[in-house]
UniProtKB/TrEMBL annotation:
PROSITE patterns from the UniProt entry: NA_SOLUT_SYMP_3
Lineage start: Bacteria, Pseudomonadati, Bacteroidota, Bacteroidia, Bacteroidales
CDD domains assigned to the protein according to its UniProt record, in alphabetical order: SLC5sbd_NIS-like
Family statement: Belongs to the sodium:solute symporter (SSF) (TC 2.A.21) family.
Protein name as it appears in the record: Sodium:solute symporter
GO cellular component annotations of the record: plasma membrane
Iron found in the keyword field: no
Chief subcellular location: membrane
Amino acid sequence: MGIYILVIIAVYFTTLLVISHFVSKKSSDNEAFFLGNRQSPWFVVAIAMIGTSISGVSFVSVPGMVGKFDMTYMQMVFGFTVGYFIIAFILLPLYYKLNLTTIYGYLEKRFGFYSYKTGAFFFILSKIIGAAARLYLVAIILQTLVFDQWNIPFFATVTGIILLIWAYTFRSGIKTIIWTDTLQTSSLILGVILIIWQIASKMNLDISQAVNVISNNEHSRIFVFDDWASRQNFFKQFLSGIFITIVMTGLDQDMMQKNLTCKNLKDAQKNMITYGFAFIPINLLFLSLGVLLLLFASQFNITLPEHSDQILPVMATEYLGFPVLIFFTIGIIAAAFSSADSALAALTTSVCIDILNIKRDNDEQAKKTRKRVHQLVSLAFLLVILIINSIHQENVLDTIYKVASYTYGPLLGLFFFGLFSKVSIRDRYVPYICILAPALSYLIEFLSLRLFSYTVGYEILLLNGLLTAIGLLCLKHDKQTTSV
């Protein structure tokens, strides 16, 4: 089995290298790496962004969560769609108007130097943790499937994966990623569809029968209106979905960098809306797969793994046959690479532009700096993954959203305070506010559970952003300024 998976990885990686070669042949300068020369077709960007958003974590975690949470994740997905409209018609016009390379340049124009650096820092922190967590899940699956059989250590597996990603992104960055991620998104979705088809076939179900079985299953529940204390309550999930999308897409350099490669604002908006609507059927596919996995396990008396993230990998490798293993391998590799390569390029861009300000250097020096940063960010990925490996989590997707609620909260407060007020603030104190707000949010979450038995969900993001905005208001100057 291991040799077949290695062949798939080799063929897949070779294809990515070929695409990278042809894309980067015309241009491999910083303008191509950071912004793709602003020539990307909007529909290609939309497809590429789907792969970046889904990642290997969604591929494994979303089907796995059905047993515990049913299909209530769709409540958050509906919120995602609303969030994409807000990004398309509020944030994208601002970014294009200011002709930004990184979106955190807005904070410097609106507030000043310290706000700008603080925003970039919180993005870098959150993205390294989130992207490393996504890549870790895929690496541990490949380790179990293949490399443990040959006594290859996990460190070597992760190093190899990161080197593969670095190899096809180091020359043209986002310009290459737009096209490689389009291939990877297509591979991922096709893999899910083929897995569903194979499972249904093994259960002697045709398509219509499979749809009926899924829709009538007890785990097909989507909406929860009756339990306000539950994290799955509709209003918590829906509102959290809106704001998680705003911060993890609209205030995230990784996702916005792809949008900024479009030729103009209108194309970028078409991309965002198309991408937003596509998220609904794709996540329905993942959740439907989760229901089918539970039904298959029940029908054949299979004991499911204790950790939900292990359900699909275990079923694919041990019970569903060789075709499903092939489809699963293709899907997981596509999801992993499409998420990690984009994050690597975005982090390199933010460090180069926001932290090191390489635009002041000559072209040759700036290009050398960018290559060194690209290598250092790759190394940071490796270190964070090894740290995550020592902290076992049942559901990595839940962990990523939780981390995002704390690290993106200050970004939410900064951007919305800047967009919807004309207040001038004392910029030098902004870093303290952005550290204090997450700390207070954590204290409130802790006390809510201990004193009132109230489990705080992803709505902690809203509280975090609100506390940041209140703190910024306390830094108000007597004079006023206009919004950028």
